[in-house]
User: Fold this.
Amino acid sequence: MTKTATQRSAFGALCAFGALGALGALTAPPAQAELLAALNYETKAGVAPRREGIAIVDIDPASPRFNQIVKDAPLPPDVVAHHIYFNRDRSRAYVTMLGRSALAVFDIDRLPEKPEIVSVPDCRMGEDMVFTADRKRWFLTCLGSSNVIMGDAETNRTLAVIAAPEPKPGEAPRPFIRNPHGATLNESLDLLLVTSTTDPELKMFGETITAIQASSGRLLGTWKVSDKPSPSGEGPVETAFVPNRRPHTAFVTNMHGGSLWTAVWKADEKTFELKPAFDFAAIGQGMPLEMEFNDAGDRLYVTTAKPGALNIFDISDASKPKLLSSIPTAEGAHHLVFSPDRRHAFVQNSLLKLPGLSDGSVTVVDLATNQPVRRIDALSKAGLNPNCIILLPGQGPNEE
Assistant:
């Protein structure tokens, strides 16, 4: 679960190699009473041999094929597919990988042809991607390499490696990038905002966000997303700008801190003012992860992995989010998508096969009643964990 003000990124996974080509026919507009989602999966912990793949599942509760796997495309077991992003005109799909220093790039119109494999040698573990509105550039955060790659969106050639190591003890403070994960792009401010989340071994959690001038790659500042002594280990994981909001305001989810923060851009000072906005411990929850907004920008949806919930906030006043509803899902609640009519939300429940965070289902939430109404468990019953959920192109929101 970047991004323009309406784009988001995330921690989960959707991937494909040549096998995804078999799904090309499914990118056409869906038939009546059918909503097709792609869920990439891997075997649950302790299950051998290890498998990776992508399943196309009908998630429409009104469909006769609800909770059925329509197509299944296996993947090589060493890819460790992570996210998929569509470029701005939806002509290509980009797949990031944790297992290889590369991207898989699919031409949507030519599926099921094999994708172009683009080497990104300076990126150990590819995480989030964002695309500029002019369709000329993309940015890729690299968790294991502590840098951000700027690429040409037409040729996919690396244009720049944006890196700045953290100051050593005794050195003067300066902006830095360390283990970047989340990314959001606000082009009206020429700002790319990235989070410092964790090292690849999930042992050293960060506590900062860093702003980068998107046009030049120049670092503008690094800010602490915590009021605790350093190292706080808050682990900010995702950040996203509220659509159509002045002053420009981004939310940040602190995975290990269990909190939601606001970052308000102060145009005169060219800096962010950060404040805590909500403590999930107060409602018995932890590990906030993914965020989404409604079209009007006055509702914020936040998933929490422990014990698993979808939380809906009124953010008419972004400085004081008001919790409207907390809907139980299942352990590991992570990515979410909405039906085109916004009647339902679909929450994918698993996080990196971590103990206590690997239910493996998808919860269907009725947004008219704010109640969980159905459970999609076709993959879980097969011993598989879906790592992300995304609608196929042309079916609704959450495609970027």
